[in-house]
Amino acid sequence: QREKHFHYLKRGLRQLTDAYECLDASRPWLCYWILHSLELLEEPIPESVASDMCQFLSRCQSPNGGFGGGPGQYPHLAPTYAAVNALCIIGTEEAFTVINREKLLEYLYSLKQPDGSFIMHIGGEVDVRSAYCAASVASLTNIITPTLFEGTADWIARCQNWEGGIGGVPGMEAHGGYTFCGLAALVILKKEQSLNLKCLLRWVTSRQMRFEGGFQGRCNKLVDGCYSFWQAGLLPLLHRALHANGDPTLSMTHWMFDQRALQEYILLCCQCPAGGLLDKPGKSRDFYHTCYCLSGLSIAQHFGSGDLLQELVLGVPENRLQPTHPVYNISPDKVVQAVMYFLQKPLLSMKKEAAAD
Q1: Active-site residue identified among 5, 270, 272, 279
Q2: H or E element: which one contains 310?
Q3: Which of 4, 221, 240, 254 is an active site residue?
Q4: Catalytic residue among 8, 133, 286, 325
Q5: Alpha-helical regions (H) of the chain
Q6: Which residue of the set 181, 224, 265, 320 is catalytic?
Q7: Catalytic residue status for 218
Q8: What is the CA radius of gyration of the chain?
Q9: Per the residue annotation, which of 36, 121, 285, 289 is the catalytic one?
Q10: Which residues does the UniProt record annotate as the domain Prenyltransferase alpha-alpha toroid (predicted)?
Q11: Is 341 in the active site?
Q12: Which residue, 275, 265, 232, is CA-closest to 37?
């Protein structure tokens, strides 16, 4: 199926069907989903396509900072996250220079709330997605300041509920997407110990379905291929956090979920015969599920890194995907490349704030 997935994604880079008209406000997401899927499949992006995409994302950037869902649209943290990830995957000088970091920092401050949370856009809602999107783009582009995330870790910790997972805001039902966003944001901020990690571990491991092998997003819900990443992606982050606590029960060869069962679900139940991946049998393929099914498959195939690297690839060797970074969900090499690039370019406003402190 690998070749069919590639052709499905390649077509999406240049032309979309009418069915995608409803995603007009999510066009940077389409760029990210397709680019990340291609990098997992180890398919290079033609230079001309990469350059065209840089120019398109540049037109999505607001003069006031951040990126909108399309050219001329209001900036919003979700497409800002997607645009920055897409540009980091491209990883060229042209891509990096698209990002107006001074304005991006101003935009993030304009969304910051007194309790440490962030709104998704001016006049928009607060939820834990915004904290993650802000932390992700700020850390990748080296614009984290001493005050930008004051109170954010405490606010996220209040979103952990009695189930053990994390809801969108304090007091809400635990949800796989919000739980990933909350924990990943805390990992970026080096505050993951703010959570009850054992309760979180119990909650997320209980979300893997015994029969299907895939994950559900919430208690008493159906399996969904996209949670192959949102839920399984939590396990590497939890492994790292519990290891820092000196937990002696941790395995040094596998994550704390059934990696084989998840691979079986994705490979046997989530592949469209014409290319692309899907939620579950009977559903239609789309770029969102293609991205997150492949991301979850990658997590299930790769344990650890460096000397501790262990691989479990179900089926033929061609099923192997590139590793993905469990915090940012782009290639680990692309994360390092972006961080090192922007580390050499500190903002003048950040220097002034540091001097004032």
Answers
A1: 279
A2: strand 310-311
A3: 221
A4: 286
A5: 2-14, 27-40, 47-60, 77-90, 93-98, 101-111, 128-140, 152-158, 176-188, 197-205, 227-230, 234-244, 259-269, 287-301, 332-343, 348-356
A6: 224
A7: yes
A8: 19
A9: 289
A10: 1-330
A11: no
A12: 275
Active site residue 224: yes
Report the C-alpha gap between 190 and 307 in whole angstroms. 24
Identity (one letter) of the amino acid at 61? Answer: Q
Chain position carrying tokens 């939590």: 234
Distance CA 118, CA 208 (A): 30
Q: Three-state SS string across 143-163, please? A: CCCCCCCCCHHHHHHHCECCC
Q: What is the pTM of this model?
A: 0.96
356 — pLDDT class (breaks 50, 70, 90): low
Which sign does the torsion angle of CA 18, 222, 157, 338 carry? negative
Collapsing DSSP states into helix, strand and coil, what is residue 323? Answer: coil
Q: Is 239 a catalytic residue?
A: no
Mean pLDDT score, 33-39:
98
Res 353: pLDDT: 64
Instruction: Give residue 135's identity as a one-letter amino acid code.
Output: A
* Residue 345 appears among annotated catalytic residues: no
Is residue 289 part of the annotated active site? The answer reads yes
What is the chain's length? 357
Q: How many whole angstroms separate alpha carbon 229 and alpha carbon 300? A: 9
Task: Write the CB contacts of 123 (distance below 8 Å, at least 6 apart in sequence).
Answer: none
Give the DSSP letter of residue 115: T
Catalytic residue among 5, 218, 320, 334: 218
Q: Which of the residue ranges 32-41, 299-308, 320-329 would you say has the lowest mean pLDDT?
A: 299-308
Residue 354 has pLDDT above 90, yes or no: no
Which two tokens mark 177? 């997407």
**Terminal C-alpha separation, the chain:** 56
